[in-house]
Design brief:
With 409 residues, the protein is an alpha/beta fold. It has ten helices and 23 strands.
Amino acid sequence: MKKPELLAPAGSFEKAKIAFMYGADAVYCGTASLSLRSRVELKDDDLAKTIGYAHEIGKKVYAAVNIFAKDESYDEIKKQARVLNELKVDGVIVSDGGVVEIMKEEAPDIDIHISTQANTISLHSSMFWYHNGAKRIILGRELSKDQIKYIMENKPMGLEIEMFVHGALCFGYSGRCFLSDFLASRSANLGDCAQSCRWGYHLYAEETNNPGNLMPIEYDEKGTYIFSSKDLCLINEIPEIIDMGVDSLKIEGRLKTEYYLATVVNVYRTAIDDYCNNPKEYDVSKYQKELEKTKTRGLTTFYFNDPKNKDFQEFEGKQYNPDYEFGGKVVEYNSEKSIVEIRNRWQIGDTLEIIVPGKIEVEEFKIEELWDSETDEKIEFVNPGKLGQQVKVKLPIKCETGWILRRKK
């Protein structure tokens, strides 16, 4: 059985470290102004730091240059390609045929990965990119498992296949959407999506027999979320995906928090390892429960199990989690008083969970004592009043720097 790569998002160097700590084999990140998440681009210095750190621990970094480029962007693309070649990034994620050509010319040592934005949903299209220099295809999320299996069974041995297994879905076809540009003058295809599909809309129907009389069409008083979709979740389908031989399983979310990243990466890491190590005793039930502790929309398998599935609209139009929130991150462990950077209010009596890398079972404990991180005085509660607010607390197990804690509301 071939164990697939687990690929996680990295919106920053710190998030990359969290992803690696919780089991990612590789991360993908944006490049300055040339990726489809322009709010979380990594400048060249941070990208270099991320690549250097990853290579030291035997991991990989893929850089996204996946905008649909106009001619005025190509000077910058050529410059970025040369930088990526010098930094020895492990792969570059591209959507545009013109960008592919530049990468082959200016960065010949880098593997080319064809982005999901390229709408690759067939063996024939995969072969086109393969013959034009692609090492890996990131499949469109619109494919069913039978269609993916067909591609896996008929592709060349030298062509790798990557697919999304978790994260936000886009109303646009494989993410190619013009709605944001039309409504907000922010192009999703140039990395500046305003997420117009998540907005609430107010719709009206005109009575046939009474022109001019408009009747509101509402899901609730906030409007109708006609474009908003649920989040993809294929945790229960991991055995089928691994059995197909897919090379890389991708998690979406460069804009997500470190807490979300730690939870989701840890769940998929343990699921992959559990199935590969002992497929006969693999139990899918425990993983979904842990994923539901993150802030998420409703979950869907999209078209993976049923290409005619229609149950993937998120009528609430928002992310939610009524029971848990980001608690904090371990800064320094001490058997008596550990230092934790908090992200939400803590007080005596709160229940916290430590997300332990490589374990699906969390370590739960109640806060019995708190100390001010600067004065060492006992306190009853602490609010995250400033960025990087810290507190001292006794942790029930030995923790590493960077481990994530969640707080039960």
